[in-house]
Amino acid sequence: ALAQFVRSIVSYQTKFDAGRAVNFTNFTAQENQGRNIFNGAGRCNTCHGSDNFVPGPVVFNNGLEFPYQDLGVGGVTGLAADHGKFKVGTLRNVELTAPYMHDGRFETLEEVVEFYNSQVVDNPNLAPQLRQGGGPGGGPPGPPRRLNLTQQEKDALVAFLKTLTDTSVTTDPKFQDPFRYTDAPTLASLASGAP
């Protein structure tokens, strides 16, 4: 029952979802700039390209650190090739899910964007998508990619990420805490026959 309930929590009422139907004419210029960076020069969509902004049931090393403090999947499999690999989380409602990364090391979306912009750490298991010359058919792996975005471009990317927010999920009464007893009758009122 719990698994079925969790599967019923679906985010689909975002500005992004509404924008797809109108070719994103509902976006501001800044949000469209961020969308273009996400799908273009930033190549964010190589890991976050599905409707749920995840790559599916795969794991990646996103260059958070080396040497590894947390082996991630490698800590479970024991395989060196899996060290530092983690499941890629959805970007839907990412504005509401701080702190970020598997260990919560980043407090803001701005920190996350700056990490991918200039701080990805080279390591043997770094995902090809985060290397120069990386990606499918991209040739031999090079050093980590540096986006070298301007502050305006970084702000635009954050603005785009915020269009993936669906506040209806957080405000819908059917998803609220079922153990809130503020509206429930008290034992005394039940004993007295009061409604």
Question: What characteristic shape results from the CA principal axes?
Answer: globular
Separation of termini?
A: 30 Å
Amount of helix = 25-40%
* Multimeric state: single chain
How is the largest sheet built, in terms of strand order?
A: 1-2
Overall number of strands? 2
In this structure, how is the largest beta sheet organized? 2 strands, antiparallel
DSSP helix count? Answer: 8
- β-strand amount: under 5%
Average pLDDT figure: 89
Q: Spell the H/E element sequence.
A: HHHEHEHHHH
Radius of gyration: 21 Å
Q: Give me the secondary-structure category.
A: mainly alpha
Q: Which segments are poorly predicted (pLDDT under 50) over 5 or more consecutive residues?
A: none
What do you see in this structure?
The relative contact order is 0.16. This protein has a two-stranded antiparallel sheet with strand order 1-2. The model has no long low-confidence stretch (mean pLDDT 89). It is built from 8 helices and 2 strands; from the N terminus they run αααβαβαααα. The protein has helices spanning 2-7, 15-21, 29-39, 73-77, 109-119, 151-162, 167-171, 187-192, and strands at residues 59-60, 86-87. 32% of the residues lie in helices and 2% in strands. It is globular and about 55 Å long. It is mainly α and 195 residues long. Helix 3 packs across helix 6 and helix 5 packs across helix 6 (151-162).
